[in-house]
Amino acid sequence: MANVAKKVSWSGRDRDDDEDGRAGETTPLLNGTGPGAAGGGRQLTPSSFLRIGQLSNVDLNEDIHELETEVPRQRPNEIPHNEKLLSLKYESLDYDNSENQLFLEEERRINHAAFRTVEIKRWVICAMIGILTGLVACFIDIVVENLAGLKYRVVKDNIDKFTAKGGLSFSLLLWATLNASVVMVGSLIVAFIEPVAAGSGIPQIKCYLNGVKIPHVVRLKTLVIKVCGVILSVVGGLAVGKEGPMIHSGSVIAAGISQGRSTSLKRDFKIFEYFRRDTEKRDFVSAGAAAGVSAAFGAPVGGVLFSLEEGASFWNQFLTWRIFFASMISTFTLNSVLSVYHGNAWDLSSPGLINFGRFDSEKMGYTIQEIPIFIFMGVVGGILGALFNALNYWLTMFRIRYIHRPCLQVVEAMLVAAVTATVGFVMIYCSRDCQPIQGSSVAYPLQLFCADGEYNSMATAFFNTPEKSVVNLFHDPPGSYNPMTLGMFTLMYFFLACWTYGLTVSAGVFIPSLLIGAAWGRLFGISLSYLTKGSIWADPGKYALMGAAAQLGGIVRMTLSLTVIMMEATGNVTYGFPIMLVLMTAKIVGDYFVEGLYDMHIQLQSVPFLHWEAPVTSHSLTAREVMSTPVTCLRRIERVGTVVDILSDTSSNHNGFPVVESNPDTTQVAGLRGLILRSQLIVLLKHKVFVERANRSLVQRRLKLKDFRDAYPRFPPIQSIHVSQDERECMIDLSEFMNPSPYTVPQEASLPRVFKLFRALGLRHLVVVDNRNEVVGMVTRKDLARYRLGKEGLEELSLAQT
Prior knowledge:
Blueprint: E1 42-43, H1 60-70, E2 85-87, E3 91-92, H2 101-109, H3 112-165, H4 168-192, H5 202-210, E4 212-213, H6 220-235, H7 244-259, E5 261-262, E6 267-268, H8 278-297, H9 300-311, H10 317-341, H11 371-402, H12 406-430, E7 434-436, E8 454-456, H13 457-462, H14 466-475, H15 483-500, H16 510-531, H17 540-556, H18 560-570, H19 576-593, H20 597-604, H21 623-626, E9 634-635, E10 637-639, H22 640-648, E11 656-662, E12 669-677, H23 678-686, H24 705-711, H25 725-728, E13 731-733, E14 744-746, H26 751-761, E15 766-769, E16 775-779, H27 781-785, E17 787-790, E18 793-796, E19 798-800
Parallel strand pairs: 2-19, 9-11, 14-15
Antiparallel strand pairs: 1-18, 3-4, 5-6, 7-8, 10-13, 11-12, 15-16, 17-18
Helix pairs in contact: 3-4, 3-6, 3-7, 3-8, 3-10, 4-6, 4-12, 5-20, 6-7, 7-8, 8-9, 8-10, 9-10, 9-18, 11-15, 11-17, 11-19, 11-20, 12-15, 14-16, 15-16, 16-17, 17-19, 18-19, 22-23
């Protein structure tokens, strides 16, 4: 048992307390308890169907004790990890409202005018989400522009000085040191303060909207670290973009505003209390993600489609309008503030953090003979995207196993920053691609060994922020780049971007992907121009745009939203069809080899993510075979001591308990009466809602729904609630607080049917009953997520407390 260990994960804390206050112990694998079980998902054969779902009974306390004696205190050098594990430490969110008596009474009291007020509040919150997301995007943009500008000016002056008198190695040292020190600060705050702020945050938000509780994902502290981290990453010269993290930032803003309080600051503004539940919060987080995309690319429609395609697992028509409203306000806020900042207040010419510039559709139309060329570019983008994802997969596995200490993660980030600067410097130094400076729009032209009045073309790609480099590749006139320059840049930047994604820094993959694609797309356009003797249609800028779309589509596998984002960011509808064609081809080709980058990272973190449909070959499985047993049930009127003991039992750690009616005359348990959650029981115990045995008629304290909302979302752990010995003998009546109409399925229901019900309704618990309505099992997210389609058919993942 000693080799079963924790791995670094999005929650970031190795000993992070779960929501019930229990420290996540290193427990053994639950599906097959030997070390061999860690070796991967077991292949399902017809003979094994009968054994599925019956978790082995493990004496957890004994195993934990054994682990404590065997495993030394210091962290291991290698953490064993296998992608065919499913983590038990991720909890689900309650996307299904508990329709107990308190809820129904409150809903009946609300009249039509009050419902109108609630609806108006929803629109107000969406407007506030848009405004704040736009302001955060402005802050990031202005700070990055000033700090990066300062860094590039210092390095440029240094290079110009040493080019004349020799000793360019000092310039390289300065550039690498500046990069590494800035990235060190960015990585330190992420690794040691809030590890969930690492990366773009899109996989985490995708999981949250799917119904998985990722610890700390929508906290205020996460937002602060995310914003500071992404500024430092971009200024530090890493191959990253600031657009991806805007989606996470928008989601955190939405989660905070919609609750009308901050648990981090311990401030409750006593507004929007009606929205303090997972269902409402989820809808606002969808709006925040869309507002983030809108602010990043100036694409409000693209933001809505991104939230629909990549993010939200639940959608309705009213939500579409509110999300569109939040996106529209977000891009307008950003546009207004940046226009004032740039000194042209009435111009409104900065709709997003990145503006691809206008493409002149008259000069750059496309003809029918170019359609096969676009399809071919899509194929190339799909293959390169699949290669990027496969390399990043192995790199991430290596990081999980070996680079799990925060200090090592910071060192790796500094190493990547220094290597990026060194590669850039060496490429610029070795390049002899000189272009006339007159008429060019280069921000920091480096002369180096070029003649007077000329600049080094390689420097426009490396010696700049990635956003500016993308725009240069799209719009620089033909002849601005040597094919050799573009080829070398593509090769180097591809590997740098692949190495950078997954570092412990806040960073997105959108812009690096666009930059790689724009480089090889422009190279493709130059080659076509040579082949067709300089035909007018073979414009390098147009092919740079198609290459960028192909590369990004090949990596993240978005189609619908990416088409609209590219159209809105270029302000050109003419290229709608070619972009769509390129993206569809890239997705089909990429999916043939390996899955998209975000889905891959979700899988690597062993998250119980539920896809849209159950595995296609799972009809032979029934609810009886996938459910968890035995189930801990409570009686409608239960002894307080029993409830406390059940909640304190760390070996089970259940979050939902079926309520049954016990017949006092017989030992037989009667049918299901309802379902009550751990969080509800904790609130009842905290407020001491119980009566003495002798005096059943005693009037107990009347709880309101507000008491439950005030405790949301961080319910106190059971260990913090003191129950005296006398109180343990009291009784607690659950009738008023339990959900009297929980969803149930018969034990003969097929897995796809159970999956559809669970997934569509956003359930956390699905009770399995027999033909007498007696509880026989419980289906939770992990029971369904552990079946997936592998290369050789249906396979079952092992469950582990990792």
